[in-house]
Design a protein that fits this description.
alpha/beta, Luciferase, domain 3, Rossmann fold, GMP Synthetase, Chain A, domain 3, nine-stranded mixed sheet, disordered N terminus
């Protein structure tokens, strides 16, 4: 783990101009880039195509993309006990598992060659420069081949999460008037339902092996609709001259993609991102991390490429020459595969990037394994954590080699750097994983900034900070007087405003937002809605989100997201939505329990429930009280005030999915929808308020 005071980043961040208006701070930049913001990683790289061409030219036949084929699906029959009308009933269920091949690889030259075939195939289908092509597919090499093929011929891409529901997909096809969509065979049934409502659609490209019936259903949605496999598109491309692929190269100011946000309120917004925006983001990552990354590093890619974090990270690693191994969320660990190991063990990554939900899952998985080992193993593990935390000379290496080596083996044994982004990560989880597994850094970004607002380099490793300003943005604070967040506070606080070469110029076909000074200020800054704080070492911490600030009965504000990030670290919790109303004294929480950890604790809470299903556990008062007690203990440990502690918990056994509408495709909770779904339970909890 990286420790010690860094001299590399100097003062961290510095003010480069004084405040211009009342109620706002001066402008700050990364100290190292105070004179000029970063716009590119090196001279000559100005577009996404430039990155691809450079990678093929520089890294050639080295491994670029790794992937695993599905050998077969393995079915297993299991008995499940549940209570029906007060009686225990045993049901048989079929569980499906993946059997996967070993990793196979495409070289950097292969990636450019295939992208060229796609580009020429698209030109043969009369795809124009002004067209917007929709990619509605899982993260895979094919996603990248298609995306790079479009970039090569200056055709814009609209990205759609593969978990997007029918209405979201329809919106992301109709708003940009897409004539063509690339998707997976598994997603064609959803497209078949949506396609009749998309009048501009004339071509469907797919990968995988759909049934004849599904293909017929898609073809029937439009007269003269062309439906081709990706292999057929590539074959069409190969029949055209190779030089055709480079006949319509992009310029840096041209739009590369319209990235649809997962939208926690209303329909998804299309963020317009230029080639220059993306290249500035690659330059930022390279400036902060380039000296830590080598060509022999390996990266496990499994987050949605429709998410800006994954898109920029993969583009940067393509530039550096690292190997990216593609995995699936369902096959990351050994638990969901048969006759093979999970993606992490098979690929053995040295670098991983994940959202907080992934890191919480890994932490709780480690704790679950430790708990299974009995009290002695648990004591040894906790003792080892204490040794690492205290930095005891001589013993740190011993506990690493003896205690934590088994945990690292579960991730392939090579992991040395990890980054969390996309939402707030609790200090407990960051510290736990940094001690037991790998140095876990934080970053802060949004689609509108190409993921670039702040990043924590290893040299300034710390907890509860999102890091130094990205080299491609400058930041100023706007006062939030109602909540007492002022740039004149010590330390300075306020809403984070960003401006720079990686920041979007606006939303697609949304002049109402683009001309709204509460979104984009007259001096070109974008208001993020996040409340930040400058620390003495020049790093930035996020302390609130304005739209999730709730004023309670006593007149004081609480920050729902901040509370959630702490409560989510409790082992009993799988997911959580903290809820409060203006007439409440304290918040309550709707919680999906972590079943394995809950069952492990049952002997001490309610031993008579051990054979009942999760739904029955959720309804038991003893379980609810135990979860509430653990949550509030975590809150007190983090210095929460009484008004920030939970008054009650509502437990539910049902997972929240994008399909149910209770979380976005990026796994952010949909507060209003959750509040509506649990309206009766919330009302009952507040009726019991003192």
């Amino acid at each position: 783990m990286f420790t010690g005071k860094s001299t590399m980043w100097g003062e961290g961040s510095v003010e480069v101009s004084p405040p211009e208006n009342p109620g706002e701070s001066g402008i700050r930049r990364l100290a190292k880039t105070k004179d000029a913001l970063v716009t590119q990683p090196i001279e000559g790289i100005e577009t996404v195509y430039d990155v691809l061409a450079y990678a093929a030219r520089t890294h050639g036949s080295r491994k670029a993309f790794g992937y695993r084929d599905i050998v077969q699906m393995v079915e297993e029959e299991k008995e499940v006990k549940k209570m029906v009308h007060g009686k225990e009933v045993t049901e048989k269920k079929i569980w499906k598992y993946f059997q996967l091949s070993d990793y196979k690889y495409y070289s950097f030259l292969d990636v450019k060659t295939i992208a060229s075939e796609v580009a020429r195939g698209l030109l043969a289908l009369d795809v124009g420069k002004e067209d917007v092509i929709n990619i509605y597919a899982q993260t895979s090499p094919n996603w990248q081949f298609f995306s790079h093929g479009c970039a090569m011929i200056s055709t814009k891409v609209a990205t759609a999460y593969d978990t997007l529901g029918e209405s979201g997909l329809e919106h992301s096809l109709n708003e940009p008037e897409c004539p063509l969509i690339f998707t997976n065979a598994e997603l064609l049934p959803i497209l078949a339902k949506v396609a009749p409502k998309v009048p501009t659609l004339r071509i469907v490209i797919y990968d995988g092996e759909p049934s004849a019936a599904v293909l017929d259903a898609v073809k029937a949605t439009h007269e003269n609709l062309k439906v081709l496999s990706l292999d057929e598109l590539r074959e069409l491309g190969r029949s055209k001259p190779a030089e055709l692929a480079e006949s319509r190269l992009p310029a840096k100011d041209e739009v590369a993609c319209i990235m649809y946000t997962s939208g926690s309120t209303g329909p998804p917004k299309g963020v317009v991102i230029t080639h220059g925006n993306l290249i500035a983001a690659v330059g930022s990552v390279y400036t902060l991390f380039g000296h830590h990354l080598q060509v022999d590093d390996t990266y496990l890619a499994f987050l949605p490429l429709a998410h800006i974090l994954e898109y920029v990270v993969e583009l940067c690693f393509l530039f550096i020459g690292m190997t990216s191994g593609f995995g699936r969320v369902k096959t990351l660990t050994d638990a969901s595969v048969r006759n093979c190991v999970g993606d992490i063990k098979a690929f053995r990554p040295s670098i991983m990037v994940g959202v907080p939900a992934v890191w919480e899952l890994i932490r709780k998985g480690i704790l679950s394994q430790v708990n299974k080992g009995g009290s002695v193993r648990k004591s040894v593990f906790n003792g080892a954590l204490s040794v690492k935390r205290a930095g005891v000379p001589g013993l740190k290496n011993v506990v690493d080699n003896v205690v934590f080596s088994q945990i690292r083996a579960a991730t392939g044994g090579r992991l040395r750097l990890a980054l969390s982004g996309g939402a707030s990560l609790s200090k407990e989880t960051q510290e736990f994983l940094s001690l037991a597994l790998v140095t876990l850094l934080q970053g802060y970004g949004m689609t509108e900034s190409c993921g670039m607002c702040a990043i924590l380099p290893p040299e300034v490793m710390q907890y509860s900070s999102v890091g130094l300003p990205s080299p491609s943005v400058e930041i100023k604070f706007l006062d939030v007087p109602d909540a007492g967040y002022l740039h004149t506070n010590d330390p300075p606080q306020g809403e984070v405003l960003i401006r720079g070469p990686s920041v979007t110029s606006g939303y697609y076909k949304r002049d109402d937002l683009n001309n709204d000074p509460t979104v984009f200020t007259k001096d070109g800054f974008m208001r993020t809605g996040d409340v930040g704080q400058w620390n003495k070492d020049g790093t930035l911490s996020l302390i609130d989100r304005i739209k999730n600030l709730i004023k309670l009965q006593g007149g004081e504000y609480i920050a729902l997201e901040r509370l959630e990030s702490v409560y989510k670290s409790v082992s009993f919790i799988s997911n959580i939505c903290v809820h409060a109303t203006p007439d409440a004294k304290q918040p309550i929480a709707i919680i999906i329990p972590h079943e394995a950890h809950l069952r492990h604790a049952l002997p001490n809470i309610a031993p008579d429930l051990k054979d009942l299903d999760l739904a029955h556990l959720c309804n038991d008062k003893r379980i609810q009280e135990a979860v509430l007690k653990e949550c509030n203990a975590a809150g007190k440990k983090n210095g929460f005030k009484t008004m920030e502690l939970l008054q009650a918990v509502i437990l539910t056994p049902e997972e929240w999915t994008p399909e149910s509408g209770l979380v976005t495709a990026a796994q952010k909770v949909q507060r209003k929808k959750i509040a509506n779904k649990f309206e009766d339970e919330i009302a009952e909890a507040y009726e019991n308020q003192d």
